[in-house]
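Dear colleagues,

I hope this message finds you well. In preparation for our joint manuscript, I am sending the ABC-2 type transporter transmembrane domain-containing protein (marine sediment metagenome) sequence together with its predicted structure, so that both groups work from identical material. I would be grateful if you could confirm receipt.
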Amino acid sequence: MNLQRTMALLKLELKKLIRDPTFLFTLIVLPVILTLAFGLAMSGIPTTSNPEISIFETMVPGIYGFMCVYIVMTVAMAFTDYRSEGILDRVNTTPTTSVEFMGSHIISNVLISLLQIVIITVLAVPLGFSIVFPGFFLTFAFVGLLALSSVGFGLIAATFAKSSGAAVGVSMAFFLPQMIFGTWIPMSDATEV
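The corresponding C-alpha cells are as follows:
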C-alpha cells in the first residue's frame, strides 16, 4: 500500500464531496439543521425518566448516530454511481490498488463523521447540551467505529443496488430500525403518553 497514492485519493475524494451540493448539504448542513431544530424545540423539556436531563440532551447522541448511519446512503450512492459511470473499471487500469482506493473512501467518510460530531457538539453546547469529558472521548471513538461500520454497510448496500436511486432504498434498511428503536427518544419515554 502506497501512502502517497492513498493520500492523493483521499484529497480527491474530499474535493469531490465538497464540490457536490447534495453531499455537502447532507453531510454538513443537515447536522446543523437537525441540531438547531431539536435544540430550539426541546432544550428545556425534561425527560420523564430523569427530570434533571432535558430531552435534547438525550437526542444529541441520537443525532450523532443518525448522521453516522447517513454515511451508509452516501457510500452506497457513490459506489453505484462509480459503477454506472465506469470509474471502478478505470481505477482497475491504474497502478492504484483496491486497498488504496477503498482506504481513501474509508478515511474520508470517517473524517466527515468526526467533523459532523464536532459541528453537532459545538452547536449543541450553547443550546443546553452538557459534555462529560471522559465520556465524550469515548463517544468520539465509538462514532469513529460506527462510521467505519457504516462505510461497510454502505458497500454492502451498493452491491445489491443497481442505481443510486436503488441505493437510497436499500440503505433505508439501516435507517428505519434507528427510527423505531429509540435513536431520537429513549424507549422509556417513547411509551409514555
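For the figure legend, we might mention the following. The chain has a mean pLDDT of 84. Residues 3-16+57-184 form one domain.

With kind regards,
E.M.
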